[in-house]
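Final report, closing paragraph on structural work. Over the funding period we assembled a curated collection of sequence-structure pairs, and we close with a single example.
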Amino acid sequence: MDANGDERRRRNPRLIDTDWLVLRDLGAAVASEAPRVARNGMTALDFGCGSQPYKSIFSSAGVRYLGADFDPHSDVVIDRNGRLDLADNSVDLVLSFQVLEHIRDLGTYFSEARRVLRPSGWLILSTHGTWFYHPHPEDHRRWTRPGLIGEMGAHGFDVADCISIVGPLAWTTIIRLTCASHALRKVPLVGSTVAGALAVAMNMRAWIEDAMTPAWVKRDNACVYLALARPAAGAAP
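Its predicted structure, as stored:
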C-alpha cells in the first residue's frame, strides 16, 4: 500500500478492515487530546512519521508540522544512528504514533525527543499494549500501562495522562478476526468477499464488547496506550 493509501486507511478505517476499531478509536483519541496541547504558531515534529496519518489534526490547529523519517526527502531526516537533523529546543510538540514498539534503542529515541523539545513542550506518544508481532522492519516490545509510564519516566519524561484504547474483550475478537481473515483471503474467488463480511460482523461484535468493558478493566489491559508527557525537570538529553 502506498503512503497516501495507508494515511487514508489509518484516518478513515473501513468496517471491512480487521483493525477498524483500533484505528478508529486511536484516531478519535488523538483528535480529542491534541487541543489540550496544540496551539496556533507551535511547531510539531512527528518522530517516525511514516504516512503522516494525523498531520491534518495538527495542521488544522495552526501548528507547523514536520515529518521526521529515514527517507532523505522527509522534512527532517533521521540518520542511521537514530539522530535528528534538527537543533536543540526547536519544537513545541514531539509526536510518536505506533513507533515505539519498533525502536531497538529507546535511549537514543527518547534522548533525541528531549533534545529537540523545548522545556515547556509536550510529547504525544502512542504504542501497543497487546498486539501481533509486526516487524516494520523490526518489532521489539509491548507494554503494560504502568510499564509504559515507568519506561517513559526512566527516559526523562513525566507522564501527565495515559489513555487506554480498546480493551481485552474487543482485542481478543480482533485477533481472531485477523487470523481468520488472513486464511480466508487465500481462498480463490470468494475468499475476499467472505473475509469482508466476516470483518463487518466481528467488528460490530468487538465494538459492542468494548462498550461493555468496564473502564477499570480496560485501563491496564488495552491494545493501545496514548500518553501525554512533558520533559522531566532536570533531565538531560
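Strands lie at 43-47, 64-69, 76-77, 91-97, 117-128, 157-165, 224-231. The mean pLDDT is 95. We thank the funder for supporting this effort.
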